[in-house]
DNA sequence: ATTTCCATGTAACGCGTTACATGATTGG
DNA sequence: CCAATCATGTAACGCGTTACATGGAAAT
């Protein structure tokens, strides 16, 4: 059977190139951390690998920007073949969501831990998720400028206008915020339940 | 630097053995699918590997139950060393939550897809998560009987009574349900937003 | 008749993580 | 002074997934 030539993370990189325009590997890492971290994370090493893979597939092109006293920026842009691949991917059923959360796992077996250990873990988790919630609410900071050049062949995206494009971005941001709020509510509730239990 | 001798999934198996009592690899797979799937999934091949690893560490013991016309059941139970490892794990800070969701990734770049493709993906996702929500609401079906034998050396769990143990189980179940509800609400909202957009 | 359940494993493979490697510039 | 930012890669490693392997009993 054929092995797939690309994976979700490949399309994550490709999608960012389609949406944000030409970007370097470094830029892509920033975007992953600030925009996609809620649904798919990536190490910088992996991003560079995906760029190499996609260059081999002809989905992206690379142009070298020379710089002094720093490594040259290698700026990647999506090709027509890349756009076709992105569209084709969109028409295949997505893999099911996966959640991996060691805190939940520890909570599940909380009865085998000293009560202080659990409380401490919950406290740390609250701090973490409060911070994330803040970050999601002001995502637009620290993002590379979106610079989508018009090509001679017409609009690069045949499916949506600039405004319509933002609908998706807003929807996904909303999800990230909803999720963090739900998680935090649960953490606070867990904290209360466990405190009550300790008093009795 | 030392490589860790165990991973979250190792402790998932270990915790189930501590909580549910002696279990076979097959039982453990059922429990993972019905109890832990919300926070950590596992293939059966991996469970058998973890059991092997833990036996090498002395964290579990195996007893063979002979059967006719079927492979023998190998029933594993946790050892005192295993309990110590579980408790020690509980006192270390948990790794941060990770979410991987290809649907969200596709939504992010929804402007590069034919609108019908997105709607179709959302519909399928709604069906999936409605089903999961139902499952979480009636989890206690299909579970192996919990059979925690009293040992000569006293209560197996020094931290919590039977009733207190269930608090954690209930808290985590509650989380799974909250999560699915939040996800579903968002999916329905996304559906509406996209339908409105198509009408204009 | 065919799917599901019971029951246990091995083998191949690669995505994703962590660590290694380098080095000038800027801000606190 | 020291940490962070900018900037790009390679190497090692293994967790986790998918596929392979087997086969009787029971249910639909």
Automatic annotation (TrEMBL), chains A, B:
Which residue ranges does the record assign to the Transcription regulator PadR C-terminal domain?
99-195
Domain annotation Transcription regulator PadR N-terminal: ranges: 13-87
Region Disordered: start-end pairs? 140-161
Q: What InterPro entries does this protein map onto?
A: Tscrpt_reg_PadR_C (IPR018309), Tscrpt_reg_PadR_N (IPR005149), WH-like_DNA-bd_sf (IPR036388), WH_DNA-bd_sf (IPR036390)
This one is known as PadR family transcriptional regulator
């Amino acid at each position: 059977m054929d092995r797939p030539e690309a994976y979700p993370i490949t399309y994550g990189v490709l999608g960012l190139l389609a949406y944000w325009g030409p970007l370097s590997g470094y830029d892509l890492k920033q975007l992953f951390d600030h925009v996609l971290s809620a649904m798919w994370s990536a190490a910088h090493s992996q991003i560079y690998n995906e760029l190499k893979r996609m260059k081999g597939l002809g989905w992206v092109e690379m142009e070298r920007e020379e710089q002094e006293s720093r490594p040259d920026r290698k700026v990647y842009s999506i090709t027509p073949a890349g756009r076709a691949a992105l569209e084709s991917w969109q028409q295949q059923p997505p893999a099911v969501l996966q959640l991996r959360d060691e805190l939940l796992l520890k909570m599940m077996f909380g009865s085998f831990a000293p009560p202080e250990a659990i409380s401490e873990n919950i406290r740390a988790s609250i701090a973490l998720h409060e911070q994330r919630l803040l970050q999601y609410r002001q995502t637009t900071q620290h993002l590379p400028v979106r610079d989508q050049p018009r090509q001679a062949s017409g609009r690069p995206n045949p499916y949506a206008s600039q405004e319509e494009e933002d609908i998706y971005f807003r929807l996904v941001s909303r999800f990230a915020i909803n999720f963090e709020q739900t998680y935090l509510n649960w953490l606070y509730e867990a904290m209360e339940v466990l405190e009550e239990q300790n008093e009795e």
